[in-house]
Write a structure and sequence with these properties.
The chain has 425 residues and is of the alpha+beta class. 36% of the residues lie in helices and 19% in strands. Strands 2-1-5-4-3 form a five-stranded antiparallel beta sheet, with helices on both faces. Strands 7-6-10-9-8 form a five-stranded antiparallel beta sheet. Strands 13-12-11-16 form a four-stranded mixed beta sheet, covered by helices on one side. The radius of gyration is 30 Å and the shape is elongated.
Length: 425
Amino acid sequence: MKGAGVGDFGAFEPGTDLSGYARELIRMHDAVIAGGRSPLRPRPLVARSWSRVLAAGLVPDRPRARSMLAVDDVERRRRESSLTAVIEDLTQALSDIADTASQLMLVVADAEGVILWRHGSVKVRHRADTLGFREGARWTEDAVGTNAIGTALAEANPVQLFSGEHFEQFQHPWFCTAAPIHDPRTGTLLGIVDISGPALALHPAVTALVSTGVRLAEAQLWRHHQTRLDRLRSAAGPALAGLSGPALVVDDNGWVAQAVGVGATHRVAVPRPDHPITVPGLGLCTAEQLADGWLIRPDSGSRLTRLELDLSGPPTLRALGGESAWCCALSARHAEILLLLHLHGRQGMTVGRLSEALFGDADHAVAVRAEISRLRRTLGSVVASRPYRIAESASLTVAFGSVERLADCDFIRHSAGPGLRALCR
C-alpha cells in the first residue's frame, strides 16, 4: 500500500489504492485522536493541524455548528476582494475539471477563510452543502477542524488532505487541495484557491491544477496592476506638463507609473501626506496626492529640512518636525561623512580633506567621491558639493547618547577614522 511518506502538498502517491488508503487513514485518525497506537502515522502537516484543532477544543464526532454570513455580507466581501477581478478567468481556466460532468468543485475563499465562490456540478455542490461547505461559511481550522482551506491559511503553504486526514469524521468521505493566492504587488494574502470533491475522485493532477490556478490568478492580478498604472500615467499628464525638474507619479502602493528626470525605478516607499520619503537619485522628497495616485518631487528647499544624526546606537538619520516618521539606517562610513560635514559647517570640505579625515591621507579621492555619490543617492540635496557640505536647506543636529562628550560615544571610539577622532577631541 502506498501513501506513507508523501509530502505535505500531496496526500498520496500516484498508483495508490484510494479506497484501501482511505480505510487506513480513517483507522489511523480514530486511533491517534483517541491517544492509541497506529501503524500509520499522520504526516507532519496533519499532526500539526490536529494539535492546533484539539487545543481549540474541537471534537471529531461532534462538529461545531456552521455559521453562515448573510447574502449581503458575502456580496460585500466579493466587491471588496481583489479576486473579483480574476474569478471569471480562474473559473474558465479550471472549468474542464469542475464542470457538470465532473465530481470536482472549485472553491475560492478570502483571507479570513470565508467561502466567496463555488463552481461545480449541482450534485457535488449538494454534497458539499451537507457539510456546510458553501458560500458564506468560514472554513478555518478553529471553525471546522483540519481542512485544506483553513490549514493552508494556518501553514501559509499549499495543502492537500485526503479522507481520514480531516479532523472531523463527517469530512472523511472528502478530499480537498488548496493553495494561497497573494497580491503580486504587495505580497498580501488575498485568499485561497481550493479544488474539492468525493475522496475516491481524487486524481494526482489536482495538485498541479491548483498550482496553475494560483499562478493564473496572480498573473492576471499583475496585468490588472499594469493597466491601472497605464491609466494613472495618462491621467497624470497635465500635472507633469506644468513641472520643471524631476518627478515621479506613483500609485497608492508606491509603484511607479511615470518617471521624469530620474533613472528608472520600479517602486518607492508608500506615500503619505506630510511624510517625507527618500528616493534613489532624488533624495528627500514630498508627496502630493493626485486623483488616483501621488506626485513625488524633491523637497524644493523652500522650507528648512530638520534632520537628526543619531549615533547613540547603529547610525540612523531621521527627519524631525511635523508628522514625519522618516528614518534611514546609515553605514558607519556615511554617518562619518555626515558628521564631518556637520562639524565643518558651511565652509565644508574638499575631496582631499575628506580623504585625509577618513583614510589618513589624500590619496583616496576616488573612494571618497564614490561614497559621496552613494550617500547623495539616498539623501539627494541634503549634501551640497564644491565643496562638500550640508546644504543650506537642511539643518543637522547630532544625538550621541548619554555620554557628555561626542568624543566619548561608541561610534567615535570604535568606527571613526583618524581625522574625525582628532576633530572630536
